[in-house]
Design goal:
With about 170 residues, the chain is an alpha/beta fold. The chain has seven helices and five strands; from the N terminus they run E-H-E-H-E-H-E-H-E-H-H-H. Helix 2 runs parallel beside helix 3 and helix 5 crosses helix 6.
């Protein structure tokens, strides 16, 4: 990163393989990383030693990401910590309600699993105000995510016209 002290990130996810994957991506980028398995453990860790940023899964047993975020917002010491939502349940019944609440009234910054390491690190850097070192892979992933959001709200006829236009351009 630079000669400053490395930034600390708390990764909160109930899946060990996801925690390890995200921890590795951040550690390789020079961040100091701590992990928690749910919102209760994360809340204890934040109270002991607040991180610079929190990477938060939404759907977890014991204490969900939404409950953790609500508790965090009640404390003025912790409410300013940037939060990046990383979830695989943005559009299913398990997480849709929490996801919609968190993106409307919460941090509003999210990535959908599976995430590419470069995209993940770029999002963390952006939230921390650290100069981004975007790669072509993370730029492509950003475009795919933006396109997916746009497509999810488009009607069938508009999608067909767009597909026809793309096919015509290829010829």
């Amino acid at each position: 990163m630079n000669s400053e002290q490395p930034r600390r990130v708390l990764v909160v996810d109930d899946e060990a393989d996801v925690r390890d994957y995200l921890r590795s991506a951040l550690a390789d980028a020079g961040f100091v990383v701590e992990t928690a398995v749910d919102g209760l453990e994360a809340l204890e860790m934040v109270r002991r030693n607040p991180p610079d940023l929190i990477s938060l899964d939404l759907v977890m047993p014991r204490h969900s990401g939404a409950k953790f975020y609500q508790a965090l917002q009640k404390d003025s010491h912790f409410s300013k910590i940037p939060v990046l939502i990383v979830t695989g349940h943005a559009r299913d019944d398990l997480g849709r309600a929490d996801f919609e609440e968190m993106t409307m009234s919460g941090p509003g910054v999210y990535l959908e699993k599976p995430v590419h390491p470069d995209t993940y690190v770029a999002a963390v850097r952006r939230l921390l105000g650290i100069e981004s070192q975007e790669t072509p892979e993370s730029q492509s992933e950003d475009l795919r995510r933006e396109l997916s959001r746009e497509l999810s709200g488009a009607d069938r006829h508009a999608l067909q016209r767009a597909l026809d236009a793309l096919r015509k351009k290829e010829r």
